[in-house]
Design brief:
about 75% helix, mainly alpha, Growth Hormone, Chain: A
């Protein structure tokens, strides 16, 4: 059965597109080969930042705020023991992660409706702002005490991690989860199984089953970047404390600057043209 024309057209346009990755809206990894080096490096950088936030956040709030599976298991264990306060905290953390993901996705959808080309960059900038707020909350701990600020910081960090995971998920069509290495390890294992299967000459070739070496390199790189980011995050928190959030926020601002700056430049030009036209100068 032939696929719909709209899907064929989208694939043709995706292959022929030479837009920078922050302006693209296509599932790169649905193709057999991953050719956009900038996209791959964006995935590595986002995984590195996710590892830094996750590890630094653990030392800040004694919790891995991106580990939704662990939080749900923790809630189930405590529900069995009847510790409902801990259950409520764990479930609220998961909800914050979901709301963060929904917030990031809504920002991307809204900016596309407004014909912004920097929808992903704007989401990164908002995440950076929330990270700065997290750093402020950490500094406020010294003033207001550890009984009030840390719970707020935990839920804010869960929200931030939900946002962080959403950007790469949408850009990659669900193939990359920058904060969750469980899915990445699973996908890597699937690709390695194909490689090992075809190593034996007596195994027949299966239709539509190929060894995707670019994916193997990508998923391996993502896991390495996450670990390196975790080391950097742990070192950063022990070195400068909550001020480490400034460095991560700056990295997100830089990543989103190209696309957001493009939108700002275009809109400033439009405003100038409209004013000149209104004054009869054009």
């Amino acid at each position: 059965m032939p696929e719909p024309q709209s899907r064929r057209e989208r694939r043709r346009r995706a292959k022929s597109s030479h837009q920078p990755f922050w302006q693209a809206d296509k599932p790169y990894l649905h193709e057999h080969n991953i050719a956009d080096a900038r996209f791959r490096w964006l995935g590595y950088v986002m995984a590195l930042l996710a590892g830094a936030i996750n590890a630094g956040g653990f030392f800040a709030v004694a919790r891995y705020t991106s580990h939704v599976t662990g939080e749900l298991s923790h809630a189930a264990d405590k529900a069995y023991l009847g510790e409902w306060g801990i259950v409520a905290a764990a479930m609220f953390g998961v909800l914050c992660f979901v709301f963060g993901a929904a917030h990031s996705s809504w920002v991307i959808l809204w900016t596309k409706r407004q014909r912004f080309r920097g929808s992903f960059g704007l989401s990164m900038w908002l995440e950076a702002v929330y990270l700065l707020l997290f750093g402020v909350l950490g500094a406020a701990t010294l003033t207001f005490g550890e009984t009030v600020v840390p719970p707020i910081a935990i839920f804010l960090l869960c929200f931030i991690m939900g946002m962080h995971n959403t950007v790469m998920t949408i850009i990659s069509g669900g193939a990359i989860r920058s904060t969750h290495m469980t899915g990445t390890a699973t996908d890597l294992g699937i690709e390695l199984s194909k490689l090992l299967y075809y190593q034996r000459s007596d195994n027949p070739r299966l239709p539509h089953v190929y060894v995707n070496q670019p994916k193997i390199r990508l998923f391996t790189g993502l896991m390495v970047a996450f670990v390196v980011g975790g080391i950097i995050g742990a070192w950063g928190y022990h070195t400068v404390g909550h001020h480490f959030a400034l460095a991560v926020a700056l990295a997100l601002f830089v990543l989103g600057f190209g696309s957001v700056g493009y939108d700002v430049k275009i809109r400033l030009k439009l405003m100038l043209v409209r004013r000149l036209r209104a004054r009869g100068l054009m």
